[in-house]
Design goal:
The longest helix has 20 residues. The protein has 15 helices and 13 strands. Helix content is about 40%, strand content about 20%. The chain is elongated, with a radius of gyration of 23 Å. The protein folds into 2 domains: about 120 residues, 3-Layer(aba) Sandwich (Rossmann fold), CATH 3.40.50.2300; about 270 residues, P-loop containing nucleotide triphosphate hydrolases (Rossmann fold, 3-Layer(aba) Sandwich). Helix 1 crosses helix 4 and helix 2 runs parallel beside helix 3. The protein is an alpha/beta fold.
Length: about 400
């Protein structure tokens, strides 16, 4: 069966048009209309010049008249007000210049998904997407330097890649200077300081305009790249943002950095459906983790099965055995992430998640498996090698009896 072809009208300079056409050609399933062609189209891509008002009026006119099913914008300008106004005018996507062709390809694939879903539910090609009921997963480190950001970034990327149509956003709350953008090779334009204390302006449109979109499809709300100067987000702002993100994404992953109990962190903890405590298998980490679990429960945060323990950088020569750790914590360790420094640091230095540069590694397989279990899609990953439950099964008759873990 031949794939349906969607029509695209491009209003842009020759240089911008050329970059857009390359991306469109690689995706397939689109037919670019000739320059100057008139008539309706499925998608219109407009380059906004020195006078943004002209481009914004075009967006509203095309959508109101039905001449275009959706509108994407591109511009060399990236000031916050223009982005916000573009989204409010109805633009579905915004591409900064120079054009990132991988970003365009990702947006086109999402367009095709929306168009296909529209045909199947009677809304037409471009009906509005229903609100989501996203799951909030908050990660905190038992102490500094245990790899919380590594686990958070790659867990979010794996959740985003579990199945077509699933979406994830990574919220960097490792204040004041979170490192998540570095792990994704991203240069933030906006961050938490754009929100500040003015929660009256919070809506999905505004949030979408300040989120950074990675080529993998993962979105990111960045921590500031400079000292906050008293502009840290308020607990009310954090709570409001998380409430909006729940309606926009399937998964909201919070990188909380080293666990603390300031007002912002407590807001994130209370909002979480799942709390993941990240530690290395050392005595100080295990002792700290035990204290954190007690503190979480005293604060009324999710308890019981809602708290998961992640041992990161685990190997045969771990400072404390799994049996000893679980005895101290009076709780099972949920996931083990192997100690593979070479693979982890290579991904970080390349500014890419493991799914992009080390997909065949055991490190990625374990985090991918963890994502599937958290998302309730365990059965879809059963064939993968090296996942935790296989190790647990082997350990019941092997090394675990000797008080060690391998």
């Amino acid at each position: 069966m031949q794939e349906e072809s969607y029509t695209v009208h491009i209003t842009a300079s020759s240089k911008t048009r050329g970059a857009l056409e390359k991306a469109i050609g690689r995706v397939g399933g689109f037919r670019v209309l000739a320059h100057g062609a008139a008539g309706p189209c499925d998608l219109s891509i407009i380059e906004v010049g020195d006078d943004p008002a002209v481009g914004l009026r075009a967006v509203g006119g095309l959508l109101a008249s039905g001449e275009a099913g959706e509108v994407f914008l591109t511009s060399g300008r990236r000031d916050p007000e223009m982005l916000i106004n573009a989204m409010r005018a109805g633009a579905r996507e915004f591409f900064a210049q120079p054009i990132d062709e991988a970003e365009v390809e990702g947006a086109l694939l999402k367009f095709k998904g929306r168009a296909g879903a529209g045909r199947g539910n009677g809304r037409g090609r471009h009906g509005p997407a229903p609100e989501k009921d996203g799951k909030v997963i908050a990660l905190f480190g038992a102490k500094g330097g245990v790899g919380t950001t590594t686990v958070a970034v790659n867990l979010a990327a794996s959740l985003c890649g579990l199945a077509d149509g699933l979406s994830a956003v990574l919220v960097d709350l490792d204040l004041p200077l979170g490192e998540a953008p570095l792990f994704l090779g991203a240069r933030p334009v906006f961050d938490w300081t754009e929100i500040g204390d003015d929660i009256s302006r919070l809506d999905a449109t505004y949030l979408k305009s300040i989120l950074l979109r990675h080529a993998s499809g993962l979105h990111l709300l960045c921590a500031p790249t400079a000292p906050l100067d008293g502009r840290a987000p308020s607990p009310e702002a954090v709570g409001g943002v998380l409430a909006h993100l729940r309606r926009m994404f399937d998964f909201i992953v919070i990188d909380g950095g080293r666990a603390s109990f300031n007002a912002v962190s407590k807001t994130a903890m209370s909002a979480a459906d799942t709390l993941l405590l990240v530690a290395n298998p050392t005595l100080p980490c295990v002792v700290n983790m035990g204290r954190l679990i007690d503190a979480f429960q005293s604060l009324g945060c999710p308890g019981g099965d809602s708290i998961g323990i992640v041992f990161n950088r685990h190997d045969r020569d771990a400072g404390i055995s799994l049996a000893q750790a679980e005895q101290t914590l009076r709780k099972k360790v949920s996931w083990l992430i192997p100690n593979d420094y070479k693979t982890a640091i290579s991904a970080i230095n390349n500014g890419q998640p493991l799914c992009a540069v080390a997909r065949t590694s055991e490190l990625h397989a374990r985090i991918d498996r963890m994502a599937a279990e958290i998302a309730g899609r365990k059965g879809e990953k059963e064939a993968r090698k090296g996942f935790l439950f296989g190790l647990l099964s082997n350990a019941k008759t092997g090394d675990r009896k000797a008080g060690t873990w391998s």
